[in-house]
Specification:
With 58 residues, this protein is an all-alpha fold. It contains two helices and no strands. The longest helix has 17 residues, at 4-20.
Length: 58
């Protein structure tokens, strides 16, 4: 007879293995910008702002 700890550890490993076998969706993300930037750095980033208005009354 196995200890309860050993049985739970086996179950945990089986669940982990099942999670690892699931398909993974990879998003097509653009590559990250290099740190420091080549065109002015943080000053340009502060000016790059916008507003999004979502109207739910429709």
């Amino acid at each position: 007879m196995l200890d309860a700890y050993v049985i739970e550890e086996i179950k945990r490993r089986e669940r982990q293995r099942e999670r690892d076998d699931r398909p993974v969706v990879e998003l097509p993300l653009p590559p990250p910008a290099p740190p420091g930037g080549a065109e002015g750095g943080d000053r340009d980033r502060k000016d790059d702002r916008g507003v999004v208005i979502i109207d739910y009354s429709g």
